[in-house]
Amino acid sequence: MNSSREIRSKERVLHAIRHEETDRIPRFVNFSPSVAARLANELQLTDVNALKSYFQSDIYMFEIQYKCPHIDGKDLFGIVYERSPEKKKKIKFHPLANIQGEDDIVYHDWPNPDWADYTTLKHKLSQSHAEGIFTAASCGGGLVSQTFNLIGRDNFMSAISYSPHLINAVIWKLNEFFMEVDRRIFTCGHGMIDMSYYVNDLSSVDTDIFRDFFAGPLAELNRQAKSFGLKTMLYTSGAAFELMPQLIECGYDVIAPVQFSAKGADTETLKNKFGDQIAFMGHVSVDSVLSLKSVEEVHDHVSQICETMKADGGFIIGPDAVIEDNVPTENILALYEAADIYGNYE
Questions:
Q1: Quick one: which of 33, 49, 213, 225 is 20 to 30 A from 63 by CA?
Q2: What does the pLDDT look like over 298-314, one tens digit per residue?
Q3: What is the pLDDT of residues 233-262, one digit of tens each?
Q4: Phi, psi angle pair for 201, to nearest 5°
């Protein structure tokens, strides 16, 4: 599709997801809070929210926040964390590590969908929708990650051989919570949400485990979202190439952020093998290009990506990870300047 009329962000992204060309490749931003503050100051913007407009981001993503009533240091799912010497958050213990029977699941302190702050989310969605921006919302998902957090990855790997029914029970109990929060989000944000997204780290999940334990509940989340007329996206770190056929079967419309360094994630392989079945988002390397290379090399990197990925739509350009403090401002500017130059269809 090519048109001389002005195309709004929402249209641009929807056409890309449908594998159609418009005026340019859609784009998104993903800055850490400290980088956002730095950019707003250096670019003399009123606040960090103005960055999305400055860089012409076509997608605004909102994750619902929770008002967790726990006063004993537990998080939403009853997990206690501690800070390591490097000040990184680390799980102190996995509450379902020694799961023995269904009573352990029944009596675990599960979160309540009422704890989600739907009012604040609705206000943000309303503002984004009024601007004509493609708007994505998330319940905070993380079905795979939260399963490992509750049980522990090593415990999970042991338990799947002797008590897979208990593992499945935990996963479906988690999914029950995510399904209900999603339902309420889609209801309160009716007409203001274009896509539902889920954050999951699939880097340590092989094809068999995904098929046997996670494909079913994730497909159910997607079916519910699509029943509300929404697109769906999986936001995962690490390599997901081997899982791509199953992810497509689960009903995802978009996979993000396609990491440049991940196994099988080179642009030509992704585009040739799956480019007509699913849309990709990301791919500009933060670790190997934006944080290390020159402005000219950033331009070359973006040019190569656009040349391969932009044909017939199906691509949204942006960083393949959160842009952190080690990325210089000139390279951030170069990313979006290059997207202007090489991402145009007209």
A1: 213
A2: 999 999 999 999 999 99
A3: 999 876 688 899 999 999 999 999 776 566
A4: -95, 105
Kind and range of the H or E element at 54? helix 50-54
pTM of the model: 0.91
| Token couple for 255 | 């996979």
The pLDDT of residue 1 is: 45
Would you say 150 and 111 are in contact if contact means Cβ atoms under 8 Å apart? no
Q: Please report, for residues 139, 279, 328, the alpha-carbon distance to residue 259 in angstroms, rounded to integers and kept in the order given.
A: 23, 14, 20
Q: How far is CA 95 from CA 29, 30, 68, 77, in A?
A: 36, 32, 17, 9
Dig out the tokens for 64 from the structure: 């619902």
Closest to 23 (Cα-Cα) out of 45, 7, 44, 34:
7
Class of domain 9-343: alpha beta
What residue has token string 């656009």?
A: 306
Structure tokens at 151: 């049980």
Let me know: does 35 contact 323? Beta carbons within 8 Å. Answer: yes
Q: How far apart are CA 219 and CA 248, in angstroms?
A: 10
pLDDT tens-digit series, residues 23-82: 999 999 999 999 999 999 999 998 888 999 999 999 999 999 999 877 677 888 988 888
